[in-house]
Amino acid sequence: MLNFKKIFFTAKLRTKPRYQWLIAVCTTVHILILNHCSALSGDHLNLLEKHQTLGINADLIQANVTSELLTCKEISMIQQGEVIGRGTTKEVFGGSYMGKEVAIKMVTSKVKDVKMCLNRRDYRIKEDCYEYANYKLMKEIAYGLQLNSDRLVKLLGYCVRGDTVSGSVRDQGVIAVVEVGKKLSKYRLTQIMWPQRLQVAKDLADLLVVLEHSPVGSVNIGDFKLNQFILIDGRLKVGDLDDMSTQEQSCLRSRDCSILGEDAGIRCVNSTCIGINAKANLLLATVELLEPLLQHPPEELGGRIDVLLRKLKNYEMNALDLQQSLTDLTEAYLLQKNKNKLLS
Predict the structure, then answer these.
(1) Sheet hosting strand 235-238, strand order edge to edge
(2) Per the database entry, which stretches of residues form a coiled coil (predicted)?
């Protein structure tokens, strides 16, 4: 299990301020290879030794790193387009590389966290205001490398070459390049036909299984909202990974381990809410996606969907149960549809 906070703050104690976030997370993802971390040289090459003292499993970290990812040189050749999204810590630009549409994620002075820091003048030098936002983008890159799943937006490439914030792919310090998708909204969900709705629901269940049983431990999505998800060729994916965490909520007693203010049957063991990540993902997936997605079902599915949603809200199912239930539901729907065709 990766403890990003421990890695970040341990590196922070050992390095110059302007390199703290860069060293901490470059160490985390072990990317002093394949031309993705060109900023670190000279004295900073000892990161390979430091990662041992930070307790990072290098074999696990390298597991999903491939030479197919775009390098810094290739990323600088992307034709950068207009802003297509803006969040708390980063902006997303459209772009084109060798005729293929891509999305470019980077920190700029226009994002909320940076603007608030600059307005407060809560810094020694202005670059300090970009440190946390860049750290979160690097954290997103780390999860993209390790959680190798079709249910997460695909990382096409990344570059780390310093802490410059220019807004351009040519010299921006930290850049992630991912595939392009359409953001989900309640309106878009209502426009999806039922066969695709069931497929999207199955994709969501697959995602929950991946997160619960990932190689880095049970992963909590964190900011679990509808607009964090995208559709690519009709398939559901998480489009934002920077709020993900493997850390289970801390507690003093079991009643501290509630979800949305309700008892979820989670025990506090050794000051940790054991299993809260998986249960929180499941409940929020139900509230944010499954309920609006599965509303107004065909008559033959109505009763079964009501039972499914009730069991989810009462914590009577886990992600694997949901996966199987949705498979059965889809088969029943297709069977009934084919039967209706034969009778018509």
Answers:
(1) 182-183, 229-232, 235-238
(2) 305-332
| Confidence (pTM) | 0.81
CATH number at 4-180: 3.30.200.20
Q: How far apart are the C-alpha atoms of 292 and 294, rounded to whole Å?
A: 6
CATH of domain 183-343: 1.10.510.10
Given the structure tokens 């390790």, which residue do they identify?
146
Summarised one tens digit per residue, pLDDT across range 290-302 is: 999 999 998 888 8
Could you give the residue range(s) of every CATH 3.30.200.20 domain in the chain? 4-180
pLDDT at 8: 44
